[in-house]
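Hi L., both proteins are below.
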Amino acid sequence: MEALNRRLIRPSLNVPSDQTHAESFYYIKQMQAKTPMVLVLNDGETLHGVIEWYDKCCLKINRGEGPNLLIYKPSIKYMYKAE
């Protein structure tokens, strides 16, 4: 019996987030539920509000205690659901 040369083919897992739609799914879920969010900016400032709208570059945040804001995504360090 002759040995076959077999190669294991692994797909690349480095798929950009805009192709997986994970980011869009997360934003849409939070927008529909009107989930109160906390955004921590790169400079340490925290913003509280609800995501109303988003695109590739920005998030629009509705806030109860202040004007609504359009936040540039690269200025966001991280975000989480408010308690």
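That was the first. Here is the second:
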Amino acid sequence: MTFQHLLRRSNFPQRQFPHLRYVQQAGGRLPDVFIKEFLAAQPHVRYFTMYGATEATARLSYLPPERLTDKLGSIGRGIPGVELKVVNEAGAEVKPSEVGEIVAWGGNISPGYVNEPEANAEKFTNGSLRTGDMATVDDDGYIYIVDRKNDFIKSYGNRVSSQEVEACVLEMKDVVSAAAIGLPDPIRGEAIRVFAVRKAKSTLTEEEIIQHCMRRLARYMVPKEIIFAQSLPTNQHGKIIKSELRKEA
């Protein structure tokens, strides 16, 4: 969320920082459009995309700046001492373009949660961490997150990545942040609702966003409605809490 606000709610893109040499972005995956905007604003900066989890002392993988162009959107590969695999429900590694869950091994993995045996049984197995992030890999072993396991939306019988819908909405320069959720719908199965925060004084309309999505996405991925908000609920790490949006809906 920090990068979104810097790029679209401040004068950061117009300012120069000659002494800024390195930047790392971690936590939730930053949509490609923001990475491009950051690099355009500060082309001299070495930008590291990183991925991690609280249960793994915050870091699991990184993408070096040299690979940003040809591996844009990837979280890279495991940091030294960490092994990452993307596995299917049977525990076998997925083939390129197949979707599976990221599982991590390493000395930085927590032994588990205190006094939470059910959660431990779900998340920790034989020293590994099941991250809950669904992803694909390419032929070089670079990992690309598709969505959180619990955030996929079932629309017209199709499995939709909420992050892909959000990335499309965020292509519109007046949108600062966005979150897509699915709501029960008698025709669609789940209707896609997007909560969006606009720039101050923006006149961007719901119809303009929906029309943009119709041009860029498959029909079953297009949001049914856009709800404009002043802000979105986030946790202490700045990640949007979609469970709160579902409660509100």
